[in-house]
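Journal club prep — side note

Before the paper discussion, L.F. wants everyone to see what a predicted structure for a comparable chain looks like in token form. Sequence:
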Amino acid sequence: MTGIDPASAMAIEELIEEDELEINSGVGPFFLIRLVSLYSLIMPRIIMSVLFPTWMRDRLYRRTEKIVESVEEKVSNANASGLSALVDVQIDVLQSSFRTMMPHILPRIGAGLAPLAILGKLSAHLPNGKDLVLTITRALPHNITTEMDLKLWSAAKVIQSDYKSLHHFKSTDADRLALEYLHGELPDVAQDAVSLFMSEYGMRGLYEIDFGRPRWREDPAPLMNTLKSYVEINGDHAPDKVFANGEK
């Protein structure tokens, strides 16, 4: 399983090796019917995403926001009932989200990956063609990862602007910074800057596709490690400068 991250591959291999796990293979009539049905939903949406990207993106954002609000309400209600109720909510969300979201997400992914593959082929003969494609695509509008990176850079610049915060970040290891953040003990300017970032991206984390991994709001040490690197950056290597170069 070389196409996925090592932690996920290990978890899947352990499941496959369990004697109790039954693996079914083969293509039956019911599977073919579902496949045709899914294809009939996805292909028109791929075409619409290519022709009307802004409208289709906004529709997906609105749908996603409604689902997130619904999940937050379920979690809030389950909190009062204890861990068992929260587990039930998680199972329900995982089972229902794939059904409700995949027919909408997959067409957008397809509409994005196809042009990316074309760019890769067109640039294959150029020196550093692959790196050039990544630089260009990272600078495209609405790139979620780039937007997050720039927000983190904004937090780093706030820390750089405050002598006490900057000195503290340079002289303290990431694990200690994470603990201080969780207890609200960072210098005030740094605490506010990190809290602002966390309010928008705290649900993300290292190997975040694994639902069992801690989020940044639970274990901010990896984020603090990145911030420690960012506060050392100046000049042309700053993320906003790299982004601007990609736009050109």
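L.F.'s comment for the group: Residues 183 and 191 are 10 Å apart (CA to CA). Keep this in mind when we get to the figures.
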